[in-house]
Structures are given as structure tokens and as C-alpha cells.
Amino acid sequence: MLGDYFYHESLRKIIIAFGTIFNNIHIHRKDSTGKVVQSIKVPLAYSPKEKFIARLDQQPDLVQDRRVAVTLPRMGFEISGLSYDPSRKLNRMGQIKKVRATSTDGKIMNKQFNPVPYNISMNLYSFTSSAEGGLQIIEQILPFFQPDYTVSIRAIPGMNIVRDVPIILNNVNYEDTYSGDFTTRRAVVYTLAFTAKTYLYGPVSQQRVIKSTQADMYTDTSNNPKREQRIVVETNPTGADADDDFGFTTTVTSFTDSKNYNPTSDSDE
To answer: What 3-state class would DSSP assign to 264?
Structure first.
């Protein structure tokens, strides 16, 4: 089973969807009259909190040498863990099937077993140089999580699988890194912990589409059975209506001569 390569980018799509939610947050700075004098779009990057803090500590002169808006505010996010979710487990033998788009005759379809539920823990970090800036960012986020926000992800395009993934806000932590004298760089950090309830999918395989079934009825199970009836069921999706067999055409043929019949032969004796 293991060793056959497949990659559906399931985790990558979750990361992209998560980052897209927070990639359009702004901070306004006002003068004493309340007029907006500066509007800053908060940069967002996939990076752990420690790297941001380390950069601020290693370059304390960023305030003097550069505009504050270039370095802070900033936002970052990362995956912190994955865990199996037994409460959302599906039947492991269940399958998802779809006729292949490249199969012009419609005789080959893709199949895939039910996905496996996993919870992905993600952290979002907000870095600002003032408490006011941090409050502006947090207030633009929290009202949308009650406590979850659902995004739709095209999980497996080839199978037409679109999955609604709830992203749950678990908690919010506050940290003020200011310490020391008045020349020390200050950073107000908010850490928001989320859980994305998603699914991971296995490989896609192929099989032929069953369009017709045939059953022969016999009077006994002897070596030379005598066939009485043949029942053939064929798909007919375009001819279905509310009173018939839901898109199947059934043909029943009776044999009154009761001739001996060899079940390994396809001839109609």
C-alpha cells in the first residue's frame, strides 16, 4: 500500500486558505483631531513568532534607520500540530467515485476511499509597536469567529470534491515584550490559536464503470442446469421518470423450452 506516490496538496491548501483570511487587515493612525494621517496594510508572512522577536532584538536601531511602518506592524502564522479526530471518522470502506474527464466513452472512473479527519492547529501572531495598533488588528478579527469561520476549499479538483472547513478560534494571548530603559524597542504581541477541522485524502485509483448486469435463473444446481429466465439490467439515466426504476432498464427473458444451458457460454440456446 505505502510507496505509491500521491500528493493532493491538502495541507498546503489549508495554509493558503488560512493566510488569505488575514491578508487584508489595515491599521489607521490619526492626529489629535481624529483625522486619519496614515493607513497601513499589515504585512502577513508564514513565519514563527521567534523569528520576528529575534529580528527585533538583533536590530534595535530599526526605529531610527527606517520608518516604523516598514517593520511594524506585522503578522505571521504557522502550523503548530496535527491530530487525528475520531469524532468525525467516516466509514473506511466508503468510496467516492467519478467518471474520468479523459474517458470519452464513459467506461472508466476514478475512485477514492473516504478521507481521514484531522485537526490542524495553527497560530496567528500580531506584532505592533503600540497597544492601540494591536487592538485595531484584534478587533478586525474577533467578530468573525463565533467561535468558527468556515472556508470552502476545492480539495480534489479531479474528483469535484469541495470541502467546507471550519476554522475555530480557541484562545487569544497577549504579551508586551517591553522591558528595560526607554530606548529599548517595544513590541506588543497577540497570539491567536486556531484549529482547522479538515480531511486528508488517499490515492486515486481507476476502475471500469459497470453499465450492465446479467443474471440467469436455473431450476436446480446440477451439472447441467436448465435455465428458466435471464434478467438484464442496463443503465438508462436519460429515460428515468418518477414512476419507473430510477434510470435503469430491466429486460426479463423467459425460456419455455428449458434446454440445458452451459453458464460459461454467452449463447442464447
So the answer is: coil
